[in-house]
Design goal:
Binding site for Mg(2+) 2: 438
Binding site for Mg(2+) 1: 431, 438
Number of domains: 2
Domain Aminoacyl-transfer RNA synthetases class-II family profile: 200-518
CATH superfamily of the largest domain: Bira Bifunctional Protein, Domain 2
InterPro entries: Aa-tRNA-synt_II (IPR004364), aa-tRNA-synth_II (IPR006195), aa-tRNA-synth_II/BPL/LPL (IPR045864), Lys-tRNA-ligase_II (IPR002313), Lys-tRNA-ligase_II_N (IPR044136), Lys-tRNA-synth_II_C (IPR018149), NA-bd_OB-fold (IPR012340)
Structural class: alpha+beta
Subcellular location: Cytoplasm
Strand content: 25-35%
Number of strands: 19
């Protein structure tokens, strides 16, 4: 701890002892019937002094100022009402939007020596930024017109022993903010606003799905086989059973087993873990929605996804055209729908089935045509479909303004997806894109156990025996052999959805506790 910080902490510790000497509990007691500050500041404030409403609040001291025999505090709580401003939503300047810049959950408190008495005044001298207190008094305006609680009773609730940052000046370092999310929530209204909106979005998803007859379930986090996606898992060991296990990389396979069991509409909102990179759109631990509907298909999932996302947009109350960075997104349905092959032809300039043209396009984009050698093995040419997908990612995705459903993918990319009967080279899959960011992924689910076993075998053929993904989930195949109904399935990355709907550019800002390296000693 730096010497200056240590000195400040020592002063706070001395104040704690002084509070105890006043006969008060520095860690507080039960404090009932506190009114949310949001409700207090909505009360009439221009009434004569003898008609001012009496109020009772509890919160944290976020600012303090002394003027002779008066103390002024800013007290904040978690209630908050939205603060907005008008903004230009695009470079043309034609579009204007109401931008939420945070929550106002702060009220000024004026403490006078005559009003709070000898003990209350002595207590007021011991307040620090970050302390939690209860305040009772009347609500009105000062001569300067500021909304204020004129305190006549103070209750000490908790002493903060660590120095708090001075408003924004101490909250500019990103590393500091992420490691001290509790302070970020206190002093940055945008962070609290995003957290509350995330809760609204998740609650809306549940309400929307429950109303359509979906059943929410919980499935295991620890799996004997890492399945349901192509991703590297985290590994662990169960001591009692003496077996290695994997932390789940997807929710898919257990939910499909429930389809076999007769739960015809099922979903899970759960944490998923992938031992992979960190980026503005990736965190190793993230939240997924996965759902399955018996007797549906990927077009059923398009309709469901559209309705679900529009419901989330509407619950936030900012209209259906919202800002995202310097861009805007119009969520007015129906969303655009475009075939993968058509978009590839438009933006790459050739047909995705033309192997010669695809290799030439990849070469022009400096895409490596050969696979890197492993353990002395020679390089081998990348499969045609791999080059197609790399070109799509490089040349097409960034041009997808959206929201747009991209559908009918090359089937080798989709081992869990039903093929089109008239063209087995195409899988009935869609991905939803908004400004180049993938938001949702859906299939007409493959329920043919024979084909499923074949595709699993092909998928695993190129992996080494040591690879954690190189294992066939025979129990899942057995479940399919008992009969899974034709179905549509959908996955939505909740963190990315919250990013989009709260105009947030990095995933770590919509996750309260993103993964960080251990703090340097």
């Amino acid at each position: 701890m730096p010497e200056e910080t240590s000195d400040l902490a020592e002063v706070r510790l001395q104040k704690l002892q002084q509070i105890e000497a006043l006969g008060l509990d520095p860690w507080g007691q039960r404090f009932d019937n506190a009114q949310p500050i949001e409700q207090v500041i909505a009360l009439p404030a221009d009434l004569p002094e003898d008609q001012r409403p009496r109020v009772r609040i509890a919160g944290r001291i976020t600012s303090r100022r002394s003027k002779g025999k008066l103390h002024f505090l800013d007290i904040s709580d978690a209630s908050g009402h939205p603060v907005t401003r008008r903004t230009k939503g695009d470079q043309s300047g034609k579009y204007e939007a109401t931008e939420y810049i945070g929550l106002s959950s702060t009220v000024q408190v004026m403490i006078g020596q005559n009003q709070v008495g000898e003990t209350g005044w002595a207590l007021a001298q011991l307040f620090d930024l970050g302390d939690l207190i209860g305040v009772e008094g009347v609500f009105g305006k000062t001569r300067m017109g500021e909304l204020t609680i004129f305190a006549d009773k103070l209750t000490f609730l908790t002493k903060s022993l660590e120095p708090h940052p001075d408003k924004w000046a101490g909250m500019q370092d990103i590393e500091f903010v992420l490691r001290h999310r509790y302070l970020d929530l206190t002093y940055n209204p945008l962070t609290l606003d995003r957290a509350k909106k995330r809760v609204k979005i998740i609650r809306t998803i549940r309400t929307h799905l429950d109303a359509q007859g979906y059943m929410e379930v919980e499935t295991p986090t620890l799996h004997a086989i890492a399945g349901g996606a192509a991703a590297r898992p985290f590994e662990t060991h169960h001591n009692a059973l003496d077996i290695d296990l994997f932390v789940r990389i997807a929710l898919e396979l257990p939910l499909k087993r429930l389809l076999v069991g007769g739960i015809e509409k099922v979903y899970e909102l759960g944490r998923v873990f992938r031992n992979e990179g960190i980026s503005p759109r990736h965190n190793p631990e993230f939240t997924m929605l996965e759902l399955y509907q018996a007797y549906g298909d990927y077009r059923s999932m398009m309709d469901l996804t559209e309705g679900l996302i529009v419901a989330c947009v509407d619950i936030l109350g900012g209209g259906r055209t919202i800002p995202f960075g310097e861009k805007t997104v119009n969520f007015e349905p129906p969303f655009q729908r475009a075939k993968y092959a058509d978009l590839f032809r438009e933006h790459v300039g050739c047909d995705m089935t033309d192997e010669v043209a695809v290799r030439a396009a990849a070469r022009a984009e400096n895409i490596e045509l050969e696979m890197a050698p492993t353990k002395g093995a020679p390089k081998v040419a990348k499969a045609h479909v791999v080059l197609v997908q790399e070109l799509f990612e490089d040349l097409v995705e960034e041009k997808l303004v959206g929201p747009v459903f991209v559908y009918d993918y090359p089937s080798p990319l989709c081992p869990l997806t039903k093929r089109k009967r008239e063209n087995p080279a195409i899988a009935e899959r869609f991905e939803l894109y908004v400004h180049g960011m993938e938001l949702a992924n859906a299939y007409t689910e493959l329920n043919d156990p024979i084909t499923q076993e074949q595709t699993f075998t092909q998928q695993l053929a190129g992996l080494s025996d040591e690879d954690s993904m190189a294992k066939m989930d025979h129990d899942f195949i057995r479940a399919l052999r008992h009969g899974m109904p034709p179905a549509g399935g959908l996955g939505i990355g909740i963190d990315r959805l919250v990013m989009l709907l709260t105009n947030t550019q990095t995933i770590r800002d919509v996750i309260l506790f993103p993964l960080l390296r251990p703090e340097a000693k």
